[in-house]
Amino acid sequence: MNAHKNALAAAMLTALGIASAAANEIPEREDKGGAVMPCSLVGVNPAHHPHIFGNPARAKSYGFVKSADGTWHVEPNCRR
Questions:
Q1: pLDDT tens, 54-76?
Q2: 1-18: per-residue pLDDT in tens?
Q3: Rounded to an integer, what distance in angstroms lies between the CA atom of residue 50 and that of residue 59?
Q4: I want to staple 63 with a disulfide (CB 3.0 to 4.6 A). Which of 3, 39, 49, 73 is the partner?
């Protein structure tokens, strides 16, 4: 009976090791909230993209400006 338990434990550890290795091969994305397209805030939550909206110069490069009340807007005449 112990042999069966040991075999089962070994199989479970192997499966966990394989799953762990596979998870480590999945690249982490900096923007976990999806893609941000220049000149479009459709479906974008700025809180999910601090690498863009946390830097006013970078946000401006995408065509976004922050109003006095803290709301993000697309610049007039923004072109992709």
A1: 999 999 999 999 999 999 999 99
A2: 567 666 665 656 555 554
A3: 10
A4: 39
d(CA 64, CA 70): 12
Residue with tokens 């042999």: 3
Place of tokens 């005449």: 77
Is 49 exposed, middle or buried, given 0-12, 13-18 or 19+ CB atoms closer than 10 A? Answer: buried
Residue bearing tokens 């434990």: 9
